[in-house]
Specification:
- By secondary structure, this protein is mainly α.
- It has helices at about 1-25, 30-40, 45-50, 55-75, 90-110, 115-135, 150-170, 175-190, 200-214; strands spanning about 140-145, 145-150.
- A hairpin with a 2-residue loop joins strand 1 and strand 2 (about 145-150).
Length: about 210
């Protein structure tokens, strides 16, 4: 029963975030998109509270893999999508897919839900704020393929990743050094991941780092 309640709460939370994004849309379409990107990371808290069955848990992210793909192709959820001329890959699909994969790893294989938290939060908060601050703070930009990145954005990604890793690694031997190395690696991964691929490379590799470190 708890898992069923969790499914309902998860869907309500996701659609509440999507609907509330309309309130910040006046600040710009990219701001509303990143608001969704950041806030949806908190779904892992809901997952840890309500779920203990990986099969029932997988229903939620799997359904959004499908829904986000349809939205990408048909521009179904407009507040979540870039316009046709600026689409840069299946970022929203990868977001849901990475959550699905991490659910399977942390719940189905390792039986340790907390393992998935750093990767999801780094994807949501790190990558989300990196994009917002990168656009709002003047700094040098650099090109990776067709994508443009900024030093301010990468610095933001580094700082937030370090904070999340440091909190998670605190107490283990050389925790701050391991957090620093991990955050540098993830910042590089984010910088070279184009076409929305950072939404899958960042959380998955972050999760693997956590598994290998703790």
């Amino acid at each position: 029963m708890k898992n069923i309640i969790g499914i309902i709460v998860a869907y309500v939370y996701v659609f509440a975030i999507i609907l509330s994004a309309k309130l910040v849309e006046k600040k710009g379409a990219e701001v509303s998109r990143k608001y969704i990107h950041i806030m949806l990371a908190n779904i892992w808290i809901i997952i840890m509270i309500f779920f203990d069955n990986v099969y029932l848990l997988s229903i939620v992210p799997f359904s959004f893999v499908i829904l986000n793909y349809i939205s990408y192709k048909k521009n179904l959820i407009k507040v979540m999508e870039r316009d046709t001329n600026s689409k840069d890959g299946f970022g929203t699909v990868y977001y849901a897919l990475s959550i699905l994969i991490i659910c399977i790893i942390s719940y189905g294989i390792l039986k340790k839900p907390i393992i998935g938290l750093p990767g999801i939060f780094i994807m949501g908060y790190g990558d989300g704020f990196a994009a917002l601050i990168g656009k709002s703070v003047k700094s040098k930009s650099y090109k990776v393929g067709d994508s443009s990145k900024t030093l301010a954005g990468s610095a933001t990604m580094l700082i937030i990743s370090f904070i999340i890793f440091a909190i998670f690694f605190y107490g283990i031997n050389l925790w701050w050094i391991k957090a620093l190395i991990a955050s540098i690696l993830i910042t590089i991964i984010e910088a070279i991941s184009i076409k929305g691929l950072d939404n899958i490379t960042v959380p998955i590799i972050s999760t693997l780092i956590v598994i290998l470190t703790v």
